[in-house]
Design goal:
With about 625 residues, this protein is of the alpha/beta class. Helices cover about 40% and strands about 20% of the residues. The protein starts with a strand and ends in an 11-residue tail after the last strand.
Length: about 625
């Protein structure tokens, strides 16, 4: 039997993957990561455990699925070190042993670590593999990796863990190395690599005592959905910074003899509330028939909400300023064709709107106003205190993550300071606005000056951490793929796992009429399909809201049989999507009528989805539904 040539590293962290490589199947040579990558690139090896930077710069490789060398926080073996604090450095020595760690260090120095440098550019210079710790002297820091990073001399008192910095910045795991090889690597080689890992990983607990914590807690060996998202995020940042041109990650497919899971099995899995993977979600989104998706989603909805009740809330949108439709450089995506003069509502005008809301039984106002350079946090504190004092029964569902991030920058505050002050002033919850598809390659193409996907998610993470709830949204139909939409859902699901802070998921189609953006895949059928897929993917979300504002009441009624259990808000004044061309509006009676004629019982709720008042019996579903 032919043996496959394997190039791999000899660090402590790699032995769980390599110690059980079958010698009858593999001819193994050890080296530092950069040398393993060179051997694979030159054809001296068929497959290698290589730094992920080599995936995007050295060749057209496939990746063995399921296995990686990575971390989900502090890793302990990839560090920036120095004798002095980083604030005093003027240069950094870069370890030639691993290009991935060197690129990661440079991205972090330009990103979250830049503030500690006071805007200074450090001189970066490469050194021989294994020698950077020697160069870390005086005002020179160094990138040190592997076992050398775990055995540093005492003089190196500054130790910045790059895995920890990445997790704090992005919220995602980091992948340092993967098994990669030529496209036609036979299935038995791939199976052999996976079999070695399956044997070696359970043996980590029996490693020498000094290595057990490192191998079992600091290192992460799964190449799962979250790790792939972290890898793709690193690829995009590296491409943006000019380190490489490609950002594709291609996994080896299953052996041809393997029976592919049929769609009915995946639909049943989602209907039963079992977690679907990213790949399974993409299959459902691209291959599933809309009627099958709807049936499965409705089964899941009825398992979560077995009664006939469909909730709604009486709310009012108050745009305290329309600056977002005039300051086009900040909100290019929503730029209308007919500009208007910017204005900020007076308190008398806001008072009139709140009085009308309370008069009809409303309990919540949705406060949105765009990115106004003239309004610092003091404006919002004064507004919130005033509204809470005058209308204590009205909840302030206020400020999208985009607006929070903007206020933070305008006011020169940290995110913690910004959120703590807004909450102290009376902010009760936060809407999910600004969540155009949470994939930066899509997001930045459409609205290049919006906050990044990671920044949007971090605002939500910190809000949930403080005990506030929020809604999760997705606006689609801007040319993104089904895979992008599913990635968006997985990112929301991962964050929900942390604090369970999202009350509901709401999606709607892009309304293009008064904008300069050409829509794609934003029909009513697309809307119902996305709703159904979302209900099956978001196993940790209790509620899903129909969007009659963009689709109209008929499609919203249909969505109650495609996974949704909420009819949204009676918006006494809606001026966000309406600015883009949507003209739908419904009164309280009309909302309740639509719920009843769809065959359900309308129930008023609050933002936390507590049921407040049952509003009457259901009618038989009309023939139009």
């Amino acid at each position: 039997m032919a043996r496959f040539k394997v190039a791999c590293v000899g660090y402590t962290n790699s032995w769980p993957l390599t110690r059980h490589l079958d010698p009858e199947l593999f001819d193994v040579t050890g080296s530092v990561p950069s040398e393993a990558a060179r051997k694979l690139s030159s054809g001296e090896a068929d497959v290698g455990l290589i730094p992920v930077a080599s995936l995007f710069s050295d060749g057209d490789y496939n990746v063995v699925p399921g296995i990686a060398l990575g971390c989900d926080g502090a890793v302990g073996s990839v560090l920036l070190v120095g004798e002095t604090p980083i604030e005093e450095w003027d240069s950094v020595a870069l370890d030639g042993a691993s290009r991935t760690s060197v690129v990661l260090a440079q991205i972090l120095l330009r990103g979250p670590l830049a503030a500690r440098l006071g805007g200074r550019e450090l001189r970066l210079f490469p050194v021989d593999p294994g020698s950077p710790a020697f160069h870390a002297q005086g005002k020179t820091g160094a990138v040190v990796i592997g076992d050398a990073a775990r055995n540093l001399p005492d003089r190196l008192t500054t130790r910045i863990d790059l895995g920890e910095e990445w997790k704090a910045w992005t919220g995602l795991p980091f992948v340092f190395a993967v098994w990669a090889g030529r496209k036609d690597l036979p299935a038995d080689a791939i199976a052999g690599l996976r079999a070695s890992a399956a044997k070696g990983l359970p043996e980590r607990a029996s490693a020498p005592a000094k290595d057990v914590t490192y191998l079992t807690e600091q290192m992460r060996y799964e190449l799962d959905d979250r790790a792939l998202m972290g890898l793709r995020r690193f690829a995009a940042l590296g491409k943006q910074a000019g380190f490489w041109q490609s950002e594709d990650v291609c996994l080896y497919g299953p052996p041809r003899t393997r029976v592919r899971v049929d769609l009915d099995t995946l639909l049943s899995k989602g209907a039963d509330g079992e977690r679907l993977t990213y790949e399974e979600g993409v299959r459902l989104a691209t291959e599933g028939r809309i009627e099958d998706l709807g049936n499965a989603a409705h089964l899941r909805r009825m398992a979560l909400h077995p009664g006939k009740e469909v909730t709604y809330i009486i709310s009012r949108n108050i745009n305290y300023t329309n600056v977002c439709v005039t300051a086009c450089k900040f909100c290019a995506f929503y730029r209308p064709k007919n500009h208007k003069e910017a204005y900020t509502l007076t308190k008398d005008q806001i008072a009139g709107k709140l009085d009308e809301l309370v008069k009809v039984g409303g309990i919540e106002t949705l406060l949105q106003g765009g990115l106004n350079l003239a309004l610092g946090i003091e404006y919002y504190e004064d507004l919130f205190h005033w509204m809470k004092a005058g209308w204590p029964g009205v909840a302030l569902h206020a400020l999208s993550p985009e607006e929070v991030f903007h206020i933070m920058n305008v006011s020169k505050l940290t995110m913690d300071q910004t959120l703590d002050r807004l909450i102290a002033a009376g902010m009760d919850s936060i809407p999910g606005g600004g969540a155009e598809v949470l994939v930066d390659s899509v997001r930045k193409r459409i609205a290049p000056l919006k906050c990044s996907s990671d920044e949007w998610l971090e605002v939500m993470r910190q809000v949930h951490k403080r005990g506030l709830r929020s809604s999760a949204t997705m606006m689609f139909g801007m040319g993104e793929t089904s895979a992008h939409r599913v990635e968006h859902l997985v990112r929301l699901r991962d964050l929900q796992d942390e604090y369970n802070g999202f009350t509901a998921f709401i999606c709607w189609t892009f309304v293009p009429d008064n904008t300069y953006v050409t829509p794609a895949n934003n029909t009513a059928a697309d809307y119902l399909r996305v709703n159904a897929v979302a209900r099956l993917m978001l196993d940790n979300f209790d509620n899903m809201q129909a969007s009659w504002v963009t689709q109209g009441p008929g499609v919203a009624q249909a969505s109650l049989y495609m996974g949704c259990n909420d009819f949204g808000s009676v918006m006494l004044e809606e001026n966000v999507v309406s600015a883009a061309g949507s003209t739908w509006s419904l009164t309280i009676d009309e909302v309740e009528h639509n719920i009843r004629t769809a065959g359900f019982v309308p129930v008023r709720r609050n933002m936390r989805y507590d049921h407040l008042e049952v509003r009457g019996v259901a009618s038989q579903p009309s023939a139009r539904v």
